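User: Structure tokens for this complex, please. No commentary.
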Amino acid sequence: MKKHALWEASLFELIRRTSVDLPADVEHSLRRAYKSEKKGSRARWVFETILENVQKARENDAPICQDTGSLIFYFQVPLGFDTNFLIAATRMAVARATRLGYLRQNTIDSLTGESCATNIANGAPTFYFEQCARTTVDVYLLMKGGGCENVGRQYSLPCEELDAGRDLDGVRRCILDAVVTAQGNGCAPGVLGVCIGGDRATSYECSKAQFLRKLDDRSPVKVLGRLEERILKESRQLGIGPMGFGGNTALLGVKIGALSRLPASFFVTISYMCWAFRRRGVLLSARGGFKKWH
Amino acid sequence: MALTVPKKLSYPFTAEKIVPLRAGQFVLLSGLLYTARDRMHKYLFDGGKSPVDLTNSAIYHCGPVVIRKDNQWIVRAAGPTTSLREEPYLPRIITDHGIRVVIGKGSMGKMTEQACMAGGCVYLHAVGGAAQVLAGRVTAVKEVYFGSEFGPAEAMWVLEVQDFPAIVAIDSRGRSLMKKVQAASRSQWRQLIADAPFEA
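Assistant:
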């Protein structure tokens, strides 16, 4: 039991902080977007409200957004580490964070419609583990709300409707279509996580893993880096603006990854993360003690 | 796209106050709001009885984070949820109950526009994700209905608010703020994809 306690405390702190404190790179990007909108415009007012909200969440030690989302945990652990133990400790931390109002009771039984009091249920939360030659544990948490989850899309190339072929320009057409289709509905300005390739499931997984990247980085794959930049630039010309009220900023970032594919399949998968981009990473010792925030 | 001087409105939201509002206008609401989201909409749509008289009221598409402390409800976070999911249900509910104000986020469909026109109702857009700013405008939790049946996120919370900020997204003439943006962005998209293709 004592062994659980340290882990539970560290993981609870990770959840609390993810829920109430937006990462610095996201806040910085929101500030820049605020300045890029015209004085006295509706778009600027939205950013004012957003920035005030970010500040207040921190001060009030309360969730940035009431939809505390799906909890997606990414663990990197030493070889042979007991991951079942980590799942148990994380679940305890999730239940406590829910009890204390850092997480909403946000888990619904799909068959009965019943609300789950702990947020621990079939498929919730989600865990990914990677074993590496290391002695410490890295944990990243994404909290992704349902509003932005609903505007994610998966395209299959070629796509006649968009006149999109099986090449990177076809990919560009799909991504821009997803932005126009989403409008402000996923709580724009959002961040796109994109995967080119994979199968239906792995493509979505890879698109979400893009959200682990910092907003100011660029894909190490040169051609993807160029595509990210171009789409971000073009998104500004769509005039969608925050909340779809009109303005310059439709997106805060575009992150693209790629997986291999089968000859017959060519998926382009887009996950949309709202402006309340809750992402935190922490380095823990092999006993679960806090070492540092990422 | 300039932000207008805020129009202050207080409960009850009578036709005289609501019908003159225009899409794009900035408003500040005071008085009672009733939260209602997916389950509440389906329930009312299916003919379920509302626990309160909703005539001239405002419903808020919101599933707040609420905790119980010292025998009191405390709203920890209360931003809007996506309203479009209620499109199949909302028009009938507006008509049946005489609701005048619907607060949520995101665009709505034709049926809601028509219901706003027919019922002298408006759809207001609050800033999505602004759960702390908006919870800060809640001055009291008056009551909760269907708490155990629907769960806390889906229950009907009766919230008293002061200067709750929102933008008129659909007015009672059926005009929509976001529809214009939508049309313009789609035509811009057509131009962008006709531009120089992306070369690998």
